[in-house]
Amino acid sequence: MSVAQAASRVAAATAFAVLVIAAAGVPDARAQATVAPKNRVVMQVSDGEPAKWNLALNNARNLQSDLGSANVEIEIVAYGPGIGMLKRDSTVATRVDEALTSGVKIVACENTMRAQKLAQPDMLPSIAYVGAGVVEIMQRQQQGWSYLRP
Amino acid sequence: MSVAQAASRVAAATAFAVLVIAAAGVPDARAQATVAPKNRVVMQVSDGEPAKWNLALNNARNLQSDLGSANVEIEIVAYGPGIGMLKRDSTVATRVDEALTSGVKIVACENTMRAQKLAQPDMLPSIAYVGAGVVEIMQRQQQGWSYLRP
Amino acid sequence: MSVAQAASRVAAATAFAVLVIAAAGVPDARAQATVAPKNRVVMQVSDGEPAKWNLALNNARNLQSDLGSANVEIEIVAYGPGIGMLKRDSTVATRVDEALTSGVKIVACENTMRAQKLAQPDMLPSIAYVGAGVVEIMQRQQQGWSYLRP
């Protein structure tokens, strides 16, 4: 083998290796972008009207029935005038219980509770709590959740 | 040319080739991140008030006039109490037609139609249909569309 | 050194260089994806009721007090019927001033102002302006900001 032939073979083999590695690396990044996204929806309830609370609960149920309950993660965040949805005397108490049982996560904003002088005994059982509803909604979006304001 | 010279030249040529390919490959990934995003907006219409329907149609028109109709994709999803916007007797029927003509996609939620005993002949012509409005809105966000609730 | 040995050494050195460059490039892309997201929230104010304006200002304050003002960027976009929040005679003028002082960016939609025959002297001082509120809200989401509609 002459020196020129050796150089040529090395260059060819190297170019091939580089292309293989590049091909292995770049599509990997693309695969991450095209993988099926998880179905996750954060819903904001900040209105005081029971009609909006019912709409939120309908939306949650429709997401579950269309996608299958196991295939969608739903979190309802109640704050501001929407906090009434989660009080013990809420007109939608039964439906909130059903949603919790079906796997929907429902959280009350402690900032709002403090402002309205509400404590956990004033609230429906089985719900969860977050320090600030707006921070929760922002963070869910940062984590890739879709936003829905019924 | 000695063997050492040959090796040196091959190594230099190879390092250059690797850098060229790396430069072609890695900035490609970065370019995808910084490339101008497509302008795509999914609008939720879930209120029963015609004022909200008009606001949604105004918003669509403003997006088109500011960005150029060819540069923005808009989809209006009507569901829940918002379904009235797309009924044959809708107070904004003419404006819905104009929006459709201008390239806005307008879809009605079949879950809502079923609940309100509406069939396609009850609805404005030329609109499209989706199984569940909330699923459509979630999926558009998963696809990178911006969300707007007028 | 024989030609074969030279070729072998060049190939080994090259493969190493390629792996180093690949290792430097690909994890870099992954690091970008997992880095802690900046806290940035764009708020839409498009309702005419002062209760909604107060809720938006409460939400901004809660974001700041929970995360620390230095750790969250907030922009309130007023348009449509929401433009009244930013007029000189606004019922929440004092609170708008306080929000501006605390670092919240507050912008009025010039499309809306034109439609309502409003000029900058009609508006609160220190606010900023955007051509189209809806375009601003879309672009902020494209830039990774979370969306909140109080």
List the helices and strands and how they pair.
The structure is a homotrimer of 150-residue chains.
Chain A: H1 3-34, E1 40-45, H2 50-67, E2 73-78, H3 93-101, E3 105-109, H4 110-115, E4 128-130, H5 133-142, E5 146-148
Parallel strand pairs in A: 1-2, 1-5, 2-3, 3-4
Explain how this protein is built.
The structure is a homotrimer of 150-residue chains. The first copy, chain A, is α/β, with parallel strands linked by helices and 150 residues long. Helices cover 50% and strands 15% of the residues of chain A. Chain A has five helices and five strands, in the order αβαβαβαβαβ. Chain A has a five-stranded parallel sheet with strand order 4-3-2-1-5, sandwiched between helices. In chain A, β3 (105-109), α4 and β4 (128-130) form a beta-alpha-beta unit. The first copy, chain A, is globular and about 45 Å long. The termini of chain A are far apart. The model of chain A is unreliable at 15-32 (pLDDT under 50). Chain B binds chain C through residues 3-4, 6-7, 10-11, 14-15, 18-19, 22, 25-26, 29-30, 33, 37, 39, 41, 51, 55, 58-59, 62-63, 66-67, 146-150, and chain C through 1-3, 6-7, 9-10, 13-14, 17-18, 21-22, 25, 28-29, 32, 44, 46, 80-81, 111, 131-135, 137-138, 141-142, 147, 149.
